[in-house]
């Protein structure tokens, strides 16, 4: 590795929290070293509490260094999260962990791209592809900005550099692999497609967005925190929104450290309802348990189909025995929809907030209830809704079809 020193940030002011996320630098109160970066000739500054680096044209690797606390253990952390903004897009970030002797452990295989032209974007850089070592092994993180391909020189704004703590799944429930709001799985991509995270078009939280090239396909991968136990979790569900119908024409589970250990699923779930969110489900009950920790999905646009993008969200391992619509339940609470009366009938023994939510996440009705309740739905359009009842300590979620018998 070249010892091209861009900058070394030593200001680590708020490092008291180790079990939660750790902010390495928010550039508000930094003692920032402004200068050149050796042979690459860039400069770095802070502007209005944000770091600004001038990336040279056709840059083969610009480094920014962030110091870690003394005798630091990086094992409890899963991501390096950065907020970035620039006019240029589709350049990569490659992380390394360094000691003063410049040892590095790069994750070149990760595809951590900035894609949102001139808008702030959170980029999550997985640490799982690097050798973390024991506490004290490394004392800084180097972030390489690889902007090749004859890109012109540009300014890269960076802020909120944070180590995100590892997610600890609760295997008594459905396990979320990624909802893109609080990412817990690395997003990978290959081929010509891109995947990134964007604001959900329904305005609720974040969502993954995948670009499929024309007459091609787009492969995306999601790592799970632990090996998938198919004796407790027997389905993988995810939600898709696209402007055209398409098929997930290849699905595979892999070992994330050795892709030769894999099992194709051959399930081909189809997205059939353009412009509506649709939940797809893949049965994995026959898959070898405790062997795989990576989900591979390939969306097709063969046969001269045009390029398209699709949104993906709520990628979950579904707990066996829970129905897909019943996320949590409480023996003291139940509800059912009467198509004859067009009423929602709720039995519960305490007060709570009842919400009727469309499949695109819009809350269409919100009522405070105080025990058993019969709610007329004559003001609600026919369709599929999620009913969510929240009260102290419990949350009951159920899908109903208004206007049709259950
Ligand atoms: Ca800041
Ligand atoms: Ca989401």
Order of helices and strands: EEEEEEEEEEEEEEEEEEEEEEEEEEEEEE
CATH architecture term of the largest domain: Sandwich
What's the Cα radius of gyration?
24 Å
The CATH class assignment of the largest domain is Mainly Beta
Instruction: Name the shape in a single word.
Output: globular
Q: Give a short account of the largest sheet.
A: 6 strands, antiparallel
Number of strands: 30
- The CATH homologous superfamily of the largest domain: Galactose-binding lectin
Determine the CATH topology of the largest domain. Answer: Jelly Rolls
CA(first)-CA(last) distance: 63 Å
Beta-strand content: over 45%
Counting H and I runs of at least 4 residues, what is the number of helices?
0
Please state the average pLDDT score. Answer: 80
Unreliable stretches (pLDDT < 50, length at least 5) are 1-18, 31-41, 323-329
Write a brief caption for the model.
The protein is mostly beta strands.
Describe this structure in words.
This protein is mainly beta and 406 residues long. It folds into 3 domains: 8-165, Galactose-binding lectin (Jelly Rolls, Sandwich), CATH 2.60.120; 175-319, Galactose-binding lectin (Jelly Rolls), CATH 2.60.120; 334-402, Immunoglobulin-like. Helix content is 0%, strand content 50%. The chain has no helices and 30 strands. It has strands at residues 8-9, 22-25, 44-47, 50-55, 59-67, 77-85, 91-98, 112-114, 121-126, 140-147, 154-165, 175-178, 187-190, 194-199, 206-212, 216-223, 233-242, 246-255, 258-264, 270-271, 278-283, 294-301, 308-319, 334-338, 343-347, 351-358, 363-370, 373-376, 383-391, 394-402. Strands 2, 3, 4, 6, 9 and 11 form a 6-stranded antiparallel beta sheet that branches. A hairpin with a 4-residue loop joins strand 26 (351-358) and strand 27. The model is unreliable at 1-18, 31-41 and 323-329 (pLDDT under 50). Bound molecules: calcium ion (CA) (2 copies). One calcium ion binds at residues 179-181, 200, 205-207, 313.
């Amino acid at each position: 590795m070249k010892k091209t020193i861009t900058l070394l940030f030593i200001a680590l002011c708020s490092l008291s929290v180790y079990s939660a996320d750790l902010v390495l630098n928010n550039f508000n109160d930094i003692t920032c070293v402004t200068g050149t970066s050796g042979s690459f000739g860039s400069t770095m500054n802070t502007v209005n509490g944000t770091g600004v680096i001038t990336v040279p044209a056709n840059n083969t690797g610009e480094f920014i260094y962030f110091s870690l606390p003394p005798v630091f253990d990086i094992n409890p952390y899963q991501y390096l999260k950065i907020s970035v903004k620039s006019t240029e897009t589709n350049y990569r970030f490659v992380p390394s962990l360094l000691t003063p002797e410049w040892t590095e452990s790069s994750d070149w295989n990760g595809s951590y791209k900035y894609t949102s032209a001139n808008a702030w974007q959170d980029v999550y850089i997985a640490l799982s592809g690097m050798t973390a070592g024991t506490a004290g092994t490394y004392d800084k993180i180097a972030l390489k900005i690889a902007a090749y391909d004859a890109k012109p020189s540009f300014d890269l704004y960076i802020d909120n550099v944070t180590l995100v703590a590892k997610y600890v799944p609760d295997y008594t429930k459905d396990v979320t692999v990624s909802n893109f709001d609080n990412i817990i799985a690395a997003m990978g991509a290959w081929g010509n497609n891109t995947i990134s995270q964007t604001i959900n078009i329904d305005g609720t939280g974040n969502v993954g967005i995948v670009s499929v090239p024309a007459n091609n396909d787009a492969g995306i991968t999601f790592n799970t925190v632990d090996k998938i136990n198919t004796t407790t979790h027997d389905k993988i569900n995810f939600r898709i929104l696209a402007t055209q119908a398409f098929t997930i024409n290849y699905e595979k589970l892999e070992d994330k450290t050795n892709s030769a250990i894999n099992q194709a699923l051959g399930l081909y779930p189809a997205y059939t309802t353009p412009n509506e969110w649709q939940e797809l489900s893949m049965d994995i009950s026959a898959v070898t348990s405790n062997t795989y920790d990576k989900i591979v999905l390939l969306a097709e646009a063969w046969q001269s189909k045009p390029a398209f993008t699709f949104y993906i969200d709520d990628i979950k391992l579904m707990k066996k025995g829970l129905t897909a619509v019943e996320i949590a339940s409480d023996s003291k609470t139940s509800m059912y929809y009467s198509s004859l009366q067009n009423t929602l009938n709720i039995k519960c023994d305490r007060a709570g907030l009842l919400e009727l939510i469309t499949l695109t996440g819009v809350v269409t009705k919100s009522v405070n209830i105080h025990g058993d309740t019969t709610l007329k739905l004559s003001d609600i359009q026919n369709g599929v809704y999620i009913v969510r009842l929240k009260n102290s300590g419990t949350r009951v979620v159920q899908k109903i079809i208004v206007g049709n018998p259950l």
